[in-house]
Amino acid sequence: MDPHEGVGFMDRQTHTPTHPVQARLSPAHGIAADLDAYLGDPMDDESGPFSYKAIVEAEERDELPPGAVEAVRAWGFPAYLVPRHLGGRLTSLEELFLVTRAVSRRSVTVAVMYGSGLLAVNPVWLWGDPRQQKTVAEGVLRGDLACFGVSEADHGSDVTACEARAEADGDGLVLTGVKWPVGNATRGRFVTAYAKTAPRDFSLLLVDKEELDPASWSALPPVRTVGLRGHDLSGVEFAGARLPAGCVIGRPGAGLVQTLKTLQITRTAIAALSLGTMDAVVRIGMDYARRRTLYGAEIYRIPVIRDLLLKSHLDLLIAECTALPVARALTVAPERLSLWSSIVKYFVPVQGEEVVAAIGTVLAARGYLREGVAHGAFQKLQRDHAIASVFEGTTHVNLANVAAQLPYLVVDAAGGATDREAGGDLLADLFTWTQAPPPWRPDGRALRLTNEGRDEIGARFEETAGAVVAEAAVHAAPGVASALADLVSVIDDLRADLRKGVLSAPEDSSSVAALGRARRYCEIHAMVSCMLTWLHNRRVFGGAFADGRWLVLCLHRLLQRVRPDTALPEEHVPPLEEAMARCRDERRWFSLTALADDLPSPLPER
């Protein structure tokens, strides 16, 4: 069977968009729409290995659904792990982000399998030599998996305590040590292994199991987990494994820096797991609320149920506004990812957890069952998504990363460090959904360990806020401009309080209070991201997107994190509610794009 037969969204050879609406968005949206259509409606029991029925049945056996991996390979998913100049189809992280979201709204487990591979191969793309890149690219395109062998049982995230060692032996190295737990450790052909290569130096080594003496390595037993059943989480032990010359990725001794930079990319990509999960559980909750009747009416009419679903949908829209620009930043502003990736990695998975909990309340007892509503897929999604806050640095690790940079970032709030001259174009490049980001030519030198006090998204708040209120006064729905003006004032007060708190203890980046300040910075970042998303897409999107009522609702929803008694303004809800119903009825993604009119052609020049 041709995997693209009848899809209608993309050219089957090039994955370029042919659907008139998708063609107006950046190509990444069309690619994801094609994959989404190809995989079928997960609520349809006959849609194949990615139906919730098939997924849950396989889950009961601790397996992946038969045919699931073959299906995503047939569509060409592995090609989106390989940059285009190396023979793949990956031109931006936005593409990989959106196709991962499409898989995750069905099976987080399958998405994690490929996410583990992405983490392993990125160092090769960023620092590898041509031979390493060719070998890995050819293997991945054939369907080979890869794993990132960094963790060790006794050391967790303390990579400086690594015990695995690689010692010189002739013109090669001999690797000894145990890496555990590691995704794809048993099934993966390639291992990107983190090992000590000198008393104070660590390096990343490209290990190809096919080239090793079988007696020099062994796979450890699978690890039993609460979620992700069927995923290969295991380990690998090296016992004097001889590695050829040229196995070191990049410069010897650079492994620690390379690992920290690589995590910036996958931290951002992990948010796609959360967006996919949010879409799935909101869909399950909406479907249940519209089908289930109590007291003579569908339970959606019960105020608390409606409130939970509206807030969950807003959380999803906020996550889109926050995560997509950072995915685009890999090729637009890679030097900013040290901060922005940690903001996204903290904020979006936490929102995902809250959405899952809210939908669990909607489903009540049905959410606890491993059968019934959507064949019991909710409880699987709930268990699988729990890993999102743990991968690539826990919630607290990422908040600490943000907290450490805050003293340098808040200086700009008083007129300091950010380069404002390039900020305008940069923000347009990050937030314009109809504009493709530049193609990715991986270069590890473009990534930085800190933002050096720069954050154009946060530092340009006054300019952004002024533009949003001014535009809303002319183009938005009645009442939106005044509501936004009030919200901007509240947000500005939050920024002032945050700055005061940071400057009162500039050396503190690890206390509970410091992490609380980092959390507030992330929340303000999300508020500004929503404003910039509206500002840079209003003219082209039109419709309920342009009228700005969703923006007012999203900002109120974010303020509820600070002031829980904040109420959503009911007068702005109807367009959002209509879009929710339409997405549920038409089986479309829950997304800001559902609020847009058909996008006009041609696009106006920027």
Write up this protein.
The protein is α+β, with helices and mostly antiparallel strands. The protein has three domains: 22-142, Orthogonal Bundle (Butyryl-Coa Dehydrogenase, subunit A, domain 1); 146-249, Butyryl-CoA Dehydrogenase, subunit A, domain 2; 258-595, Butyryl-CoA Dehydrogenase, subunit A, domain 3. The chain has helices at 27-39, 52-60, 68-75, 93-104, 108-127, 130-142, 255-291, 303-332, 337-363, 377-385, 395-409, 423-431, 456-459, 461-475, 480-504, 512-541, 543-546, 549-562, 574-586; strands spanning 146-149, 165-169, 172-183, 190-198, 201-208, 217-220, 233-243, 293-294, 297-298. A four-stranded antiparallel β-sheet has the order 2-3-7-6, covered by helices on one side. The protein has a three-stranded mixed β-sheet with strand order 1-4-5. A hairpin with a 2-residue loop joins strand 2 and strand 3. Helix 1 packs parallel to helix 4 (93-104), helix 14 runs antiparallel to helix 15 and helix 15 runs antiparallel to helix 16 (512-541).
